[in-house]
Each structure stands twice: as C-alpha cells, then as structure tokens.
Write a structure and sequence with these properties.
By secondary structure, the chain is mainly beta. It has 4 helices and 33 strands. The strands form 8 sheets. Strands 8-10-15-12-13 form a 5-stranded mixed beta sheet. The chain has a 5-stranded mixed beta sheet with strand order 17-19-24-21-22, with no helix packed on it. The chain has a 4-stranded antiparallel beta sheet with strand order 1-6-3-4, with no helix packed on it. Pfam families: CUB_2, DUF7591, DUF7592.
Length: about 425
C-alpha cells in the first residue's frame, strides 16, 4: 500500500509535523520530502519532528505485510520578520562561536574569508530531530540560495561552506534548546581540506563511543562539546590503527597554536588514557584508518594499565591568558603495585596573584609526599620530581579563592609511571 499526504505551507509560514510510525515488519517505511527537495526515509518514529517551509512537501507511507500504526500531527506558525542576530567568525580565534537551537529566529554569520558550519548532536532522536528545523542559506538573508538543513549536515558528516563571507541560519523550531550547543561556526581557512566532521555530544560520566575514522581521502575531525559543565572533560582512551591524531583545544586552526597533543597510532598506547578539558575539543585524524575511543568517565584518566605510561596534566585554558585556570589529576599505579615510581616535571606554571597548587603522593592510604606552591614558592621548571607510592594527586587553581581575578596562562605538567 502506498499513501501520500501533502503538507501545504503558505509563504512566510512554516509547518511542524510530529510523525509516529510503528510496524511489525521492518520493510514498511515513510518517505518525508521536506524543504526544497530534501528526502528522508523513516522506519520507526515516536512523535518525531519534521519541518516544512513555503512550498510544503509530502509524507509517503509504503507498506507490504504486517501491522502498521501510522499518524502525524501538524501545526503552522507564521515566521515573522527577518531580524537576525549577528555572529562574527575570526580566522585567528581558537574557540569558535557556537549556538544552540533557537525558537523561530535566525542568525547571520560573517567570517573573515568564508563561513564553515558544522553540527553536533547526541545520537538520540529527541536531539537530532531538532536539527531538521535548522535551515541554512548561502548568503546574507533568506532569499539567498538554500544549502540544506543542519540534520543533513550532521548525518553526512560534512561542513557547509559559504560562497562569500556570510551564511544565514534559520530556526523553525518551536522551542529553545540554547543550553545544548549544536552548531559550530569557523572560518573556512582553518577547516579547508577536512573531508568529514563527526559531531559528538555525550553526557558527563558516560562513554561517548568508539569512532571508526578513515582519512584516506582527507582528514577526519571529531568535534565534542560540553553538556553540563563548560569545561567538561574528555578522556581519550584508545587510538588504534594507523595514522596521526592532532588534538585541538577549540577548533582546528591553520597555525596549530591550540594543539595540545599529537599521537601516532603505532606508539600511542603508552600515552593513553589522556584527559582534555575545554568547551570544544577537536580530534583530527590527518592520515590513515583508526578507531578512536572517547569517554567522559573521568576515573578512566587515573587508571594505569602498565608501567611506562606517560601523560600530562594541563589547566583548562593552558597557554592562553584566562581569569580562571584549573587543573586536577589523580594518577594510580598499575593494580597491585604500591611502590611505583612517579616522575613529574613542570614545563610551565603561572603562579601569578593568588594562584595555588599542590602535589601529594600516597602509599597504602598514607601521605608520603606533600608540596605546596604559590606566588612566592614557585615550582622548579624542567626538573624531575620523584614520588614512590601507589598514586599521586596534583591540583592547581588560579582564582577560585580570590575576589580579584588576575589572568594567568595556567599550568602544564608531564608525568611518567615507572617500575619500582
């Protein structure tokens, strides 16, 4: 059976369809033909949202055998006058502007050269269906050439690039979801040549997943963004296969000034797990094929599988002047060893103002090493500190305990876990 429903939409209006589909056979499906020729096949849905603009679209139900439950609701809303908020994208910026889902509004994005737009979402329909209501136009207004929806952008793992230096984003969504940042805007000079973008969102304490990336036809970028805490921590636990991985604090930049770590898949095992703490992180596989696992279970960073592990603890905005710099790490020896040797070395430590820092070493529940630092008691840079025990803890804070906020460049400390 084939059944076609036509969705009519007048000029200046938009329609939202909430679609439901349940079937005992996997073959029955719905084809949704939406804005300006976009098409999508749906095999199951529970009030999943689709959006239509002037010119409308169709919903086509196709079935064979089995029981099918199918239905939808439609509401129409007048879009209102075009009065966009404006966002400026700078080629030199390491932390690109982002946006959540806005209610019946629009954004005009202007870049130094060309605008690059990418999308991030949880892999749940409650979130990614909202991207269907985000329409993108190549130019300064809604009469500019239509590019596609943010949902197409996310599922195709692509970037939209403006012909000129402006891109318009139209939100047909009926509700705000501004706290979840789902759109990333960069200057194309920084993202030029990247073949695929995987936009990954995940909750604190959860495993984001293992991502199979193939950079044979060009670099592949995994972008992760915070959920609850703006300085949410990612822990990179696996980089297996071939190729090299660059980890950027923020977006990819041409000068690579915000790269915090480089990895080679053949030698990465002893350098993982490793945590990264910043509002937006970009993992760029520049060549090869690899599996990359990222988790937000912070405890994974503290676990050491084997002796010879190497890593670092860096503050939230390390090397950048920032009012708030924070770093913490608690690193354990491999299970069953209480007399491991930890080798620590400070590469940089900005102790300006009321910044405080400490290191403590532990063995069988007792403190065996303790050292405090401040603006008058400075750590020795590029000199090794050795601690014997089963774990150590490092803490750095620039301004939490001070009313006067003095910017610092943070801290970067390397560590190794060695045999007794």
């Amino acid at each position: 059976m084939n059944e076609v429903k036509v969705i009519n939409v007048d000029d200046g209006w938009s329609a939202r369809v909430k679609l439901s589909l349940e079937a005992t056979d996997t073959w029955p499906h719905v084809k949704v033909f939406g804005p300006l020729g976009s098409a999508e096949e749906v095999y199951s849905a529970d009030f999943e949202e689709f959006y239509f603009i002037a010119g409308g679209g169709t919903i086509q139900l196709q079935t064979r055998n089995g029981t099918v439950k199918f239905g939808f609701e439609v509401d129409w809303v007048q879009n209102g006058p075009f009065s966009p908020s404006e966002i400026r994208v700078n080629q030199s910026s390491t932390l690109p502007p982002t946006s959540g889902i806005l209610k019946l509004s629009s954004i005009l994005v202007t870049a130094d050269t060309h605008v690059s737009l990418t999308a991030i979402s949880y892999n749940y329909d409650d979130y990614y269906m909202l991207l269907r209501g985000v329409l993108v136009y190549d130019g300064p207004d809604l009469s500019s050439p239509y590019v596609g929806t943010a949902y197409q952008l996310w599922t195709n793992q692509a970037q939209y690039v403006s012909t000129g230096n402006q891109l318009t984003i139209q939100f047909l969504n009926r509700n705000d979801l501004s706290q979840e940042q789902m759109l990333v805007m960069q200057d194309y000079e920084n993202t030029k040549g990247i073949a695929h973008f995987l936009g990954v969102a995940c909750q604190s304490g959860s495993n984001c997943g293992t991502f199979s990336c193939d950079a044979s036809n060009g670099p592949v970028a995994i972008q992760t963004i915070y959920s609850a805490n703006v300085f949410e921590i990612d822990v990179l636990t696996e980089f297996d296969g071939t190729g090299t991985l660059e980890v950027y604090m923020g977006g990819v930049t041409k000068n690579k000034n915000n790269v915090l770590a480089y990895y080679n898949a053949q030698t990465s095992a002893s350098y993982l797990p490793q945590k990264f703490q910043y509002p937006l992180k970009t993992y760029l596989l520049t060549r090869g094929k690899a599996n990359i696992n990222i988790t937000r279970d912070y405890d994974e960073f503290g676990k050491t599988k084997d002796f010879g592990r190497k890593g670092f603890i860096a503050s939230t905005s390390y090397s950048q002047l920032d009012d708030y710099q924070h770093a913490y790490g608690n690193i354990s020896a491999p299970n069953g060893f209480s007399s491991a040797k930890f080798k620590l070395r400070f590469i940089n430590a900005d102790m300006t103002g009321n910044t405080m820092m400490y290191i403590e070493g532990y063995q069988n529940g007792k403190t065996v090493f303790e050292k405090d630092y401040n603006s008058t008691v400075l750590p020795d840079l590029n000199k090794d500190i050795f601690i014997t025990g089963d774990s150590f803890e490092m803490y750095y804070d620039s301004n939490s305990f001070s009313q006067q906020k003095i910017p610092t460049r943070g801290v970067y400390m390397k560590f190794e876990v060695l045999k007794p």
